[in-house]
Design goal:
Number of helices: 6
Number of domains: 1
Radius of gyration: 15 Å
CATH architecture: 3-Layer(aba) Sandwich
Helix content: 40-55%
Number of strands: 6
CATH superfamily: Flavodoxin domain
Structural class: alpha/beta
CATH class: Alpha Beta
Largest sheet: 6 strands, parallel
Strand content: 15-25%
Length: about 170
């Protein structure tokens, strides 16, 4: 069974980024043939535990991410890049900690004209951890997060063949 995790790096729990990520995860699962329901890790819910060396909640979340075959990573754009929450969390993974993982970057930006930098930054971060990173990543404008279906479907039409192939190898 394919282990699928959605990692949400928005500063607010239960955010619109999370809702959009779950919609994208459903589309990824359908297109890539993943039948398992995704586990959800919302970094905002971990709060200050992210800065605690031995927090059980963070250790558990890191282990779930490391075991994932498919990892959808969703972050809003903050100061031109992904959130500090995501950086702090992923810095705790070992080198090549995502070595057997298919990663799907999802970024939410205020202005689509300034969106490619964050998608590229997130792609590099995930690749540096050893993940095979889906191309293209999914970029949503902030006002699209409440109804992302049409953008997600259009993105999935392009990304699905590569995702399907990568997931079949990873699983």
């Amino acid at each position: 069974m394919t282990r699928f995790t959605v990692l949400v790096a928005a500063p607010q729990p239960q955010s619109s980024v999370r809702k959009a990520a779950l919609r994208a995860a459903a589309e990824v699962a359908t297109r890539a043939g993943v039948t398992s329901r995704p586990e959800i890790i919302d970094l905002a819910e971990l709060g200050t535990d992210l800065l605690t060396e031995s927090a059980v909640s963070v250790t558990d979340a890191l282990e779930r991410v490391r075991r994932s075959d498919v990892l959808l990573v969703a972050s809003p754009q903050v100061h031109g890049t992904y959130t500090g929450l995501l950086k702090v969390f992923l810095d705790r993974l070992p080198e090549l900690g995502l070595g057997h993982t298919v990663a799907v970057p999802l970024v939410v930006v205020d202005d689509l004209r300034n969106s490619h930098g964050i998608e590229e930054d997130l792609r590099v971060l995930l690749a540096d951890l050893g993940a095979w990173v889906a191309e293209p990543g999914l970029i949503l404008a902030a006002d699209e997060t409440h109804r992302p279906e049409s953008v997600v479907r259009a993105w999935a039409d392009v990304a699905a063949p590569g995702l399907r192939e990568a997931v079949s190898v990873a699983a």
